[in-house]
């Protein structure tokens, strides 16, 4: 799925905490979706746990949803069944750059294993490795993880798991050979992705947090002498930044990762490019994205462009929130599946104390505003324009929803193909569901 075609609406997760989170509006065309009834996740009693174990080690394995610690995975020490029922739906994300001699044959092998498993998602393979995001019942999702770990090429992959409380987060399974694991203008097959020295240096979540806290402390101590040898680069899209971002990161002026061009602009000042005119030899560039793959890929481009001090957040924001919670983070995390948004509590619920909620409220309550009237909002509710030929994604107060019949502007209210205004926080189905219908009769 193209990243710019993944935006529908924001799901209000049943376990989300109710506090104002930093959000601005964004314009992305695509459809919305209708959530299924939530699945209740109950922690199993010890006597109920099965024998399905994963190869993990260290104290991280004793924490919630911890995996991929990068250590030797020879023994079966970690039991993820402590966190999920067998039939509880989860989403698994991972990628790995590794040489695959016969990617077509690898696709066939994976398809054969997944026969009979209830797995939906996007799993792409090519000569450079694998990139996967999929959903399914816990027992099926983890069976695939365990099978992959038996292959030495994937034994150290950082698998990341999060709850999918409304069932499958993807409509179907797409497992195939794909020339580019991530879409980027000009392709990525020519990039030295298998050469780790050409990619940025990965920082663990704790190292990342330390760097951000150190820089922010220096900036607060002397606003007139800020750290000019440091750039925090959000290698995502503008609408992802709108949902949530790290303090100090400039909003990317990008609607699709394919068109990312940070550091590629001419030497003259470009206000939309955080890397314009920086000292490539002495500037530390800290890059982050959702799961890490976009940063790994783009860092090879920056390395070829002469940037020396490149660092990425290992495992991306999702791994950071799981380990450190929302320290230095504002808002929720955009995800490219039907859930669309996850609060930090989805990854590390124990850190969401009353004090941290109040802190987030004071930090985030200033720019969650209605796209139409500009009024401040207390709930994170995006909607797609009722005009199917517009389908603009925007943040809107209920008063404007009612006044404009679910549309983003007065002009759209006069369109001939209008979907009905959905009550409350319901979501439209995928936009293509309405595409060929006579919407005037709906």
Q: Can you put this structure into words, describing what you see?
A:
Residues 1-22 form the signal peptide. This is Rhodanese-like domain-containing protein. With 442 residues, this protein is α/β, with parallel strands linked by helices. Among the domains are: 39-164, Alpha-Beta Plaits (2-Layer Sandwich); 201-336, Rhodanese-like domain (Oxidized Rhodanese, domain 1, 3-Layer(aba) Sandwich). 20% of the residues lie in helices and 15% in strands. Strands 4-1-3-2-5 form a five-stranded mixed β-sheet. The chain has a four-stranded parallel β-sheet with strand order 6-10-9-7. It has a two-stranded antiparallel ribbon with strand order 8-11. A hairpin with a 6-residue loop joins β12 and β13. α3 (205-221) crosses α6. It is globular.
The helix content is: 10-25%
Would you identify the CATH H-level superfamily of the domain at 201-336?
Rhodanese-like domain
Supply the helix-strand structural class.
alpha/beta
Low-confidence stretches: 1-79, 223-227, 353-367
The count of DSSP E runs of length 2 or more, i.e. the number of strands, is 15
Q: What is the terminal-to-terminal distance?
A: 29 Å
How many DSSP H or I helices?
9
InterPro entries: Rhodanese-like_dom, Rhodanese-like_dom_sf, Rhodanese_C, TrhO, TRHO_N
Domain Rhodanese: 226-329
Signal peptide: 1-22
Protein name: Rhodanese-like domain-containing protein
């Amino acid at each position: 799925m193209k990243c710019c075609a993944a935006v529908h609406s924001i799901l209000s997760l049943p376990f989300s905490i109710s506090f104002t989170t930093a959000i601005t509006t964004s314009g992305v065309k695509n459809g919305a979706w209708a959530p299924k009834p939530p699945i209740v996740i109950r922690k199993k009693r010890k006597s109920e746990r099965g024998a399905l174990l994963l190869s993990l080690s260290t104290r991280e394995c004793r924490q919630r949803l911890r995996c991929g610690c990068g250590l030797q995975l020879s023994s079966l020490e970690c039991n993820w069944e402590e966190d999920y029922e067998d039939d509880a739906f989860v989403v698994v994300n991972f990628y790995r750059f590794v040489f695959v001699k016969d990617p077509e044959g690898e696709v066939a092998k994976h398809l054969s294993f997944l026969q009979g498993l209830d797995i939906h998602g996007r799993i792409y393979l090519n000569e450079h490795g694998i990139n996967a995001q999929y959903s399914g019942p816990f027992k099926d999702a983890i069976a695939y993880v365990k099978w992959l770990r038996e292959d030495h090429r994937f034994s150290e992959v950082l698998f990341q798991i999060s709850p999918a409380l409304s069932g499958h987060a993807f409509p179907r399974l797409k497992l195939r050979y794909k020339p580019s694991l991530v879409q980027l203008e000009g392709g990525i097959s020519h990039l030295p992705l298998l050469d780790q020295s050409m990619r940025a240096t990965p920082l663990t979540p704790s190292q990342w947090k330390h760097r951000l806290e150190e820089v922010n402390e220096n900036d607060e101590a002397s606003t007139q002498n800020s750290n000019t040898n440091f750039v925090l680069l959000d290698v995502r899209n503008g609408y992802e930044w709108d949902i949530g971002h790290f303090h100090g990161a400039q909003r990317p002026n990008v609607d699709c990762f394919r068109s990312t061009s940070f550091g590629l602009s001419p030497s003259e000042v470009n206000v939309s490019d955080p890397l314009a005119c920086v000292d490539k030899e002495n500037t530390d560039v800290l890059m982050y994205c959702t799961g890490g793959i976009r940063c790994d890929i783009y860092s090879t481009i920056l390395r070829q462009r002469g940037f020396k001090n490149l660092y990425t957040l290992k495992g991306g924001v999702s791994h950071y929130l799981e380990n450190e919670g929302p320290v230095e983070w504002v808002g929720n995390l955009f995800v490219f599946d039907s859930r669309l948004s996850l609060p930090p509590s989805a990854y590390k619920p124990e850190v969401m104390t009353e004090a941290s909620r109040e802190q987030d409220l004071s930090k985030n309550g200033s720019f969650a505003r209605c796209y139409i009237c500009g009024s401040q909002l207390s709930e994170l509710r995006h909607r797609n324009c009722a005009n199917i030929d517009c389908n603009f994604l925007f943040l809107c107060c209920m008063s404007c929803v009612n006044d404009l019949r679910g549309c983003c502007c007065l002009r759209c209210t006069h369109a001939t193909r209008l979907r009905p205004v959905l009550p409350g926080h319901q979501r439209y189905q995928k936009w293509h569901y309405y595409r060929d219908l006579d919407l005037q009769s709906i």
